[in-house]
């Protein structure tokens, strides 16, 4: 998939929502009606509160040693933006200015009265509070299921690791300074640094957000382009190529049919089959074996698979035997089509290979014909399975192969 | 004579089907999208409609919804190139009495049309496989046990269809009459259409995302 695991995740979320509404929707930053980055609005929607309440809370907390700013910044980082197509709506700068003014007034009041210097206590609350906010953000029941997917798990893990790491570093630094008794001395410096950084951030903010928006837009565009390119590449590599080959071989009906059939099969797999590894999954392996025989012998094989499981040694033997049965049908049956049916049940796997061809008499098969006796029946018995051949002259042939599944 | 209307957005395909159908079939008309299909069904009163799944204007499911929704008893046989579980289960649950893929031979298609016109269901091996898979994979408690599970006999019949057996061969294999085979298949079709376990549709959708 393109666009990394996050797009993959999104796609899954989108396609699941119509049937099962998520009980605990993930917090997002809405684009519409946001003042800065939509954090307060998003959090308000999550907590079912008026955004004004949260905005005021952030302003008030900002006055207390800048806690609100920290919390806001952290939530900004950890909250995904709402999916939004098209030109983002503008902000209500008047309202934003009002909150800014309120914040500044409160800060001035705090500086003058000294009420805002809460001491070391506020910092621990800050660290704990922000940590909790992030955890609360991360913990959501649906998420755990998605953690099951390996790739996603990796990403989530590293997120959590980063968060925990940050938490430890900050706590450690504060602890160190506190133990040295330097916290009180260091604080004015820290506060000024924060003020300078904040000032620069404020000045650069419009430019940074513009850059960010550009990046997002470019990313969306790139994903679309990549999808289009993949589609085009696929059509070019396979379909156009086959069409050229068909024109070149137009005098050879066998080759034309074979090419068309092989292209059809390939396109169908690409469009409709769940992506699966033919070296690991039973259904995919059956499809691959059948595809190889189709290509070799130019006879269509209809495959129906019910259920799926991982391959084990018994199943690999079963596949070999099934392959031999398909080869026999393709070579000797003179049937227009071969049907293959594979069913995975809880304790065993069965494969049927059937043709409506001319059939044969089992007793007439010479002992040295390895195909049936050794490659099919013998192989299945060696692996604790069984093979049954049902045939007769003019009745077609059906080979039934069964093997017990290894219990993992 | 069975009166048939062919609904498909590919003109070449429509004329191909027309040429291949046996003498028991009379093609009374063609339609190329949802609108013209609905109008033609009203006007021509066919016995069976050969319905394509993907078409402009909402596809086969939209035709099913509009025609069957108005109380019509006309019978539909879905005919599509698509192998996707979503499409197959979708049109069957929309009310089609059968699903065959476009690779089917003219003779088999003629048989299928006659069968549908007589009120029986037509399952391709792949559809049978999907049904077995869908009914096996759901573990959630069922609301209506009669509708939400298959009987042993129905399972046997479906397995044989999936293995490529014709109804006559199934009858011989199970020592029952062809009529009984048809009854079992119709009963599976009814379950597939009426079972209100939404997992069926969800299973079909989820299958693409694995």
Task: Give your account of this protein's structure.
The complex is a heterodimer of chains A (408) and B (210). Chain A folds into two domains: 214 residues, no CATH class; 131 residues, Heat Shock Protein 90, CATH 3.30.565.10. Chain A contains 13 helices and five strands. A five-stranded mixed beta sheet of chain A has the order 1-2-3-5-4, with helices on one face. Chain B has 210 residues and is α/β, with parallel strands linked by helices. Chain B contains eleven helices and six strands. Chain B folds into two domains: 119 residues, Response regulator (Rossmann fold, 3-Layer(aba) Sandwich); 89 residues, Arc Repressor Mutant, subunit A. In chain B, β5, α5 and β6 form a beta-alpha-beta unit. At the A-B interface, α1, α10, β1 and β2 of A face α6 and α11 of B.
Proportion of beta-strand residues of chain A? 5-15%
The beta-strand count of chain B equals: 6
How can the largest sheet of chain B be summarized?
A: 6 strands, parallel
The unreliable regions of chain A are: 1-23, 139-148
List unreliable stretches of 5+ residues of chain B.
none
How many helical elements of chain A? Answer: 13
Compact summary:
The complex is a heterodimer of chains A (408) and B (210). In chain A, 64% of the residues lie in helices and 9% in strands.
Q: Top keywords for this entry?
A:
heterodimer, A: 408 residues, alpha+beta, Heat Shock Protein 90, 2 domains, five-stranded mixed sheet, 13 helices, 9% strand, disordered N terminus, B: 210 residues, alpha/beta, Rossmann fold, Arc Repressor Mutant, subunit A, six-stranded parallel sheet, 11 helices, 14% strand, Response regulator (chain B)
Set down the secondary structure blueprint.
The complex is a heterodimer of chains A (408) and B (210).
Chain A lengths: L3 H13 L22 H9 L3 H13 L3 H12 L14 H21 L6 H19 L2 H7 L2 H31 L2 H66 L4 H20 L9 H16 L3 E6 L6 H21 L4 E7 L3 E8 L14 H13 L3 E6 L5 E8 L4
Parallel strand pairs in A: 1-2
Antiparallel strand pairs in A: 2-3, 3-5, 4-5
Chain B lengths: L1 E6 L3 H10 L4 E7 L2 H11 L3 E4 L7 H11 L5 E6 L4 H10 L3 E4 L4 H12 L4 E2 L1 H13 L7 H4 L3 H11 L4 H8 L3 H17 L4 H9 L3
Parallel strand pairs in B: 1-2, 1-3, 3-4, 4-5, 5-6
Helix pairs in contact in B: 2-3, 4-10, 4-11, 6-8, 8-10, 9-10
């Amino acid at each position: 998939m393109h666009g990394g695991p996050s797009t993959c995740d999104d796609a899954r979320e989108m396609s699941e929502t119509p049937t099962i509404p998520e009980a605990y929707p993930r917090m997002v930053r809405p684009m519409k009606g946001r003042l800065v980055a939509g954090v307060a609005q998003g959090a308000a929607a999550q907590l079912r509160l008026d955004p004004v309440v949260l905005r005021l809370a952030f302003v008030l907390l900002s006055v207390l040693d800048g806690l609100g700013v920290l919390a806001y910044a952290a939530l900004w980082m950890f909250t995904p933006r709402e999916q939004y197509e098209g030109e983002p709506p503008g902000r209500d700068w008047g309202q934003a200015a009002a909150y800014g003014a309120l914040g500044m007034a409160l800060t001035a009041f705090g500086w003058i009265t000294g009420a805002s210097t809460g001491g070391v206590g506020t910092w621990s609350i800050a660290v704990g509070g922000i940590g909790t906010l992030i955890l609360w953000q991360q913990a959501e029941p649906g998420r755990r299921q998605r953690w099951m997917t390996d790739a996603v798990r990796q990403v989530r893990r590293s997120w959590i690791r980063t968060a925990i790491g940050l938490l430890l570093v900050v706590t450690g630094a504060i602890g160190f300074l506190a133990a040295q008794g330097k916290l009180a001395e260091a604080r004015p410096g820290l506060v000024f640094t924060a003020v300078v950084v904040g000032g620069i951030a404020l000045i650069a903010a419009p430019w940074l957000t513009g850059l960010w928006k550009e990046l997002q837009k470019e990313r969306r565009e790139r994903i679309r382009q990549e999808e289009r390119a993949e589609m085009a590449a696929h059509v070019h590599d396979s379909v156009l190529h086959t069409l050229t080959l068909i024109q070149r071989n137009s005098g050879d009906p066998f080759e034309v049919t074979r090419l068309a059939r092989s292209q059809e099969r390939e396109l169908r797999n690409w469009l409709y089959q769940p992506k699966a590894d033919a070296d690991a999954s039973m259904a995919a392996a059956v499809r691959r074996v059948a595809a190889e025989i189709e290509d070799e012998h130019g006879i269509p094989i209809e495959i129906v698979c019910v259920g799926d499981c991982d391959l084990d040694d018994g199943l690999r033997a079963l596949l070999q035997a099934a392959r031999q049965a398909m080869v026999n049908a393709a070579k000797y049956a003179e049937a227009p089509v071969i049907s293959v049916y594979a069913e995975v049940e809880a304790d065993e796997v069965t494969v049927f290979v059937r043709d409506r061809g001319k059939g044969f008499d089992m007793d007439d098969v010479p002992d040295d014909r390895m195909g049936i006796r050794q490659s099919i029946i013998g192989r299945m018995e060696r692996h604790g399975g069984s093979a049954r051949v049902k045939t007769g002259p003019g009745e077609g042939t059906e080979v039934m192969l069964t093997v017990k599944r290894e219990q993992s | 004579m069975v009166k048939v209307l062919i609904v498909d957005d590919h003109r070449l395909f429509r004329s191909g089907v027309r040429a291949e159908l046996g003498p028991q079939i009379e093609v009374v008309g063609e339609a190329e999208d949802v609108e013209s299909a609905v109008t033609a069904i009203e006007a021509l009163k066919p016995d069976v409609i050969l319905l394509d799944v993907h078409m402009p204007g909402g596809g086969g499911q939209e035709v099913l919804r509009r025609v069957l929704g108005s109380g019509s008893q006309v019978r539909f046989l879905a005919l599509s190139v698509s192998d996707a579980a979503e499409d197959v289960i979708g049109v069957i649950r929309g009310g089609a009495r059968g699903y065959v893929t476009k690779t089917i031979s003219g003779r088999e298609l003629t048989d299928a049309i006659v069968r549908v016109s007589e009120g029986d269901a037509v399952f391709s091996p792949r559809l049978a496989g999907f049904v077995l898979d869908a009914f096996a994979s759901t573990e959630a408690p069922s609301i209506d046990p009669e509708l939400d599970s298959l009987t042993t006999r129905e399972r046997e019949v479906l397995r044989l269809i999936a293995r490529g057996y014709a109804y006559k061969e199934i009858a011989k294999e199970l020592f029952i009459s062809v009529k009984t085979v048809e009854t079992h298949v119709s009963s599976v079709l009814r379950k597939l259409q009426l079972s209100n376990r939404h997992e069926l549709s969800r299973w079909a959708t989820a299958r693409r995302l694995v």
